[in-house]
């Protein structure tokens, strides 16, 4: 067993870059320290949307600011002959060269990538995106090093919710990480590499309570359904109150204020003005 541990954890794109830097941490620490990585939501796919132009933006950044030194050397060497060293900005190309043990936390339907990279809310495109991401995590990450592991969830979110996301078997992220790290720290073979929620998008049940609220708010179609249901419930409540009052009173409708009532409105229901203030208008049953 090694004498100490160094855990590097981060979220978002810097989490992706953190993976590249793990190599230098491991080399500096030598054998005295166990170095592991815990990136959250950093597995960004190489994709070019005509509006967002995410891939072009990172390619420009790499060339403009000469990011070579911050990339994994093995990745740079692999792409130097083709002049595509910028590809090392993307985890799917860089991770095959990271040998430091890494436990990847990654939403399959990353809300940030859906907005800024894929640039779509279409469930069919998101399901395809999630399947592609899952396959790349398997081939370009897990299969490259038997010490790597990943927790893939199907919640539409980006970063966070440590301890609240669980597999269908009830295993949380901290529990999965602890089981994985116990083997790494004791220099034993990793018994399990993947913990995953396999449900397709959208899956509100895959999220924690707080994340479900955030994900639901950011899904326009679902939010529209909720607003529609709330409006319908409000109208139904007003109508029921009106029905109750007028059935008991048996009073006729007065339409002198607004003229002819719409054909869909019951004859016992009418608008009225309360008091002298013409701006104080409401719908109520005639008493």
UniProtKB/TrEMBL annotation:
The keyword Membrane applies. It holds the Pfam family PAE. The chain crosses the membrane at residues 222-248. One of its GO terms (biological process) is cell wall organization. Keywords: Cell wall, Cell wall biogenesis/degradation, Hydrolase, Membrane, Secreted, Transmembrane, Transmembrane helix. Its EC number is 3.1.1.-. GO terms for molecular function: hydrolase activity. It is found in: Secreted, Cell wall. Hydrolyzes acetyl esters in homogalacturonan regions of pectin. In type I primary cell wall, galacturonic acid residues of pectin can be acetylated at the O-2 and O-3 positions. Decreasing the degree of acetylation of pectin gels in vitro alters their physical properties. Belongs to the pectinacetylesterase family. This is Pectin acetylesterase. It comes from Cymbomonas tetramitiformis.
């Amino acid at each position: 067993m090694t004498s100490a541990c160094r855990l590097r954890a981060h979220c978002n794109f810097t989490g992706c870059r953190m993976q590249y830097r793990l190599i230098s941490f491991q080399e500096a620490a030598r054998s005295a320290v166990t170095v592991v990585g815990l990136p959250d939501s950093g597995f960004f796919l190489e994709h070019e949307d005509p509006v967002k132009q995410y891939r072009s933006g990172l390619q420009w950044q790499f060339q403009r600011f000469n990011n070579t030194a911050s990339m994994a050397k093995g990745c740079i060497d692999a792409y130097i002959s083709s002049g595509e060293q910028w590809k090392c900005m993307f985890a799917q190309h860089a991770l095959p060269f990271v040998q430091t043990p890494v436990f990847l936390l990654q939403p399959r339907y990353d809300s940030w990538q859906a907005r800024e990279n894929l640039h779509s809310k279409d469930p069919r495109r998101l399901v395809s995106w999630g399947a592609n991401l899952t396959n790349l995590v398997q081939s370009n990450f897990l299969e490259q090093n038997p010490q790597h592991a990943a927790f893939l969830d199907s919640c539409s979110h980006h970063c966070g919710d440590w301890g609240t996301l669980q597999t269908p078997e009830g295993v949380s992220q901290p529990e999965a990480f602890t089981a994985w790290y116990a083997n790494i720290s004791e220099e034993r073979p990793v018994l399990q590499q993947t913990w995953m929620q396999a449900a397709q998008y959208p899956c509100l049940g895959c999220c924690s309570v707080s994340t479900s609220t955030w994900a639901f708010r950011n899904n326009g179609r679902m939010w529209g359904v909720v607003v529609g249901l709330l409006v319908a419930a409000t109208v139904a409540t007003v109508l029921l109150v009106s029905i109750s009052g007028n059935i008991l009173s048996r009073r006729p409708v007065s339409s002198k204020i607004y003229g002819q009532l719409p054909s869909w409105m019951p004859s016992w229901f009418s608008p009225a003005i309360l008091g002298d203030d013409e701006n104080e208008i409401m719908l109520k049953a005639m008493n």
